Amino acid sequence: MPQPSRNSLLLATLLCMAFVLSCPLAAHTAQGQDAPLFSRDLTTLRVGYFQAPPHAYQLASGQAAGAAVEMLVRHVAPEMQISIEMAGPYPFARLLNDFESRGLDAILMLSKTPERETHFVYPTHPFGTITAALAVRNSNPMSAYVSGTRFDSKRVGTVRGAWMPADFLHSGARFEPTTGESATVLNLQKLVNDRVEIVFCPDTCILIQSINQLSLDNEVRVIPMPEATGNLYTVFGRHLPKDIINRYDAALRKVLAVTSYQKLKQKHLQSLTPPLSLNQ
Asked: Are residues 73 and 119 in the same domain?
């Protein structure tokens, strides 16, 4: 049997090396920045939420409900021709962590901060607004909040990771963040047990509903923070195609022309037991 020549062996070796060296390059290209992070059907978005009645809460059946849930699932999603899978409720901090690990496609409700804008894609339009408030015991002499008020060394219960107005953040208060599915409720329990002196909540509606849930109307007062306002957005993961956010913006504009988020909030406040009023 004839032996292969030296030249033919060298040629075969070079061809093998070329094939082996080309494999990592091909894998790198497939996983480059322009390639999708994962492949799945984007006719359904998985949206995470946290307990924030009347915006979002869980029914006894396990189903998600609330004004923000209704706005997205019943009004915006059909205009987008997309389905929504609600996931939660999660503690607020855990929800953010699950989002960043790409377990979720969107967060139902989030205010905007510069830090969050580096992690999430915000649509052009908010779907609603919030106004912050404080809760104090009736024995507390504080009667009103004015921007710039000092709270030196006052113990203030907050929700870990929640938005806070800049002047209050730098007011000298000693913030004690709480985690959990019902962090505002936990903070109010701390208040009546003298573990904190003040409770901060980024949304007056959530604070009022939590006070009502605990039947603390005769023990606790709400102090509005009229200058501490923010917008509410449904935010999206950076792994989603830009078309999804564009479709959401177009659908939301159309919905807001005929649907009032304020009225949806009032509707869900009234559906809670006992019913509440935004004017309370």
From this structure: yes
